[in-house]
Write a structure and sequence with these properties.
Layout: H1 19-25, E1 32-37, E2 40-45, H2 69-81
Antiparallel strand pairs: 1-2
Length: about 80
Amino acid sequence: MMEVEERNVDAQGRVSLPSKWRRRHLDPDGRVTLIQNGEEIIIKPVKPLKISDVFDAVPVDLESDLGDWKRVKRELLKGDEA
């Protein structure tokens, strides 16, 4: 469902978001990303990255068993020198 609000922008370029929108969409730090797309200005909440989102994000060719982290580390560091 789309909700529409009309707000003023003050002389410093600030616009206030409705409190119910802030509570629903923003984290306590209130960080947002501003995107200009042609004539549109899009405000998107910044969501913290969950470490699980990047699991399996970088393919690595390893011969080592992932159960032996010391060997994996050694192999990764050796690959950095090559």
